[in-house]
Amino acid sequence: MDRILPIITNNLDIYVSGLLVTLQLVGISFVVAMVVGTLVASFRIAPAKPLNWIGGFYVETFRNVPLLVLSIIFSAGLLRAGVSLGRMSAASAALGLYTAAYIAEAIRSGVSAVSKGQIEASLSLGFTYRQTMRQVILPQAFRTVIPPIGNLIIAMIKNSAIVAGSLIALTDILKVARVVNSRTFATNEAFFWAGVGYLLLTIPATIIVRRLETRFAIKR
Amino acid sequence: MGYLFDPANWEWIFAGRNFMFLLERFLNNIILALVVMALSLILGLVIALMRISKNKITSTVTGIWIDVWRNLPVLLILLYFGLALPQEVKEFWVDIAPGFLPPQIKGSGQVVASIIALTIYNSAVIAEIFRAGIQSLERGQGEAAAALGLPYWKAMRIVILPQGLRRMVPATVGQLITLTKDTSLVSILAIQELVAAGAIVNSTSGSPFISGSDVPAPILQVYIVVGGMFVVFNLALSLLSRRLEVRERKRAGDVETITGLEDQIAIKPV
After folding, report:
1. Is residue B234 within 8 angstroms of chain A, CB to CB?
2. If one looks up domain A4-216 in CATH, what number appears?
3. What is the pLDDT of residues A161-185, one digit of tens each?
4. Least packed by Cβ within 10 Å: which of A145, B71, B143, B229?
5. Are B200 and B206 in contact (CB under 8 A)?
6. Is residue A110 within 8 Å of A37, Cβ to Cβ?
7. Which domains does chain B possess?
8. Using a CB-CB distance cutoff of 8 angstroms, which residues of chain B are in contact with residue A178?
């Protein structure tokens, strides 16, 4: 470990650019995951059986398939089928659609945590289904959903290594560690600094999520 | 869409041993997941007990250990051990590996690197599940045991752990699902498992050996089948986990159970 400092000072620029690629990937995927996840959650709680089935099928499929397999399908698989997505879009589609299944489950359990009596009460007050959702259920569900979504962002930061490292070959921070390792043979140091890079993102996120958990905790 | 559903692109499934070959290699993922889970449960319990220890130094150091490993990507840990583990350790594994294991697991030194990497990561997650299980019991249980004159370890052994362990079963099964998905990553260390087998079936050089024909196996369709195998297996596990959760609720009345969500532990109050 005597090369611990030279490795980072000599390669600081590529480590930082790797960190930025990771952040960019997580950012785009998060938008995809939120949009698709909300849609799927609304399918799952909609008062129509066929929509429930579609939502359920989506969640069970994308939650149980390894992210590596998904990213192979979205990169090489689609390319062979004649669909060319570009590296960043393929990576964020795979990571975003995978996480969307978890987001949908988080939103659904947040909605179902609001007691049924409240739905009945607001319906009997003459609210429509949409008004009930918008004005009574969702504002409360939102509070319960924030901590799990924070946890999913942390999981996305970690999972971004899988999509970037598979056939998609984006130069994220883990890829930088592999490049530095093959150039210098300083395996311990190269991976140590990549680990530090990830912890710089995930540990503060964990602390924030823990804060939010106590702040938004609803006494029931 | 035409490409996806074109029957010609699905013929490979029925060609020779293609499908059986994939299933056989999936067994390697399952074996690896079960071995890692067994080790993680043992190590995780030790780590959890150190984490809740009354000794401040022990619990702080263990807390840092858990948080560091839990917050790193599994792939990074896997790659690191694959590259950094000394050759002697890998060869040692090939010498001592039990005979009943499939040859692809027995004969690859990288397997020991992946078992170490996955166990370090998973034992940290499992330790948190144990901790949540123990702490979900009302403090009253521990106090009552102390009031009855039970020493700490005896109270732990006969009062707290039996109840805590039962509550963490659903979360542990949930983690087994995550772990099964993570075993797909060991293909990056050139271990023969399902994802690597997909690449063989897909390749023009490997596939004729397995299928005995030159029906092309397009990569998209191959990995849809590979993904489908994972989905079926994990779906069965998650149904089991849900059933266990319901049974626990019925058995113990309205208790909190602990569930997992992609490595994150949630205590579900009633």
Report:
1. yes
2. 1.10.3720.10
3. 999 987 777 899 999 999 999 999 8
4. B143
5. yes
6. no
7. 2-268 (1.10.3720.10)
8. 79
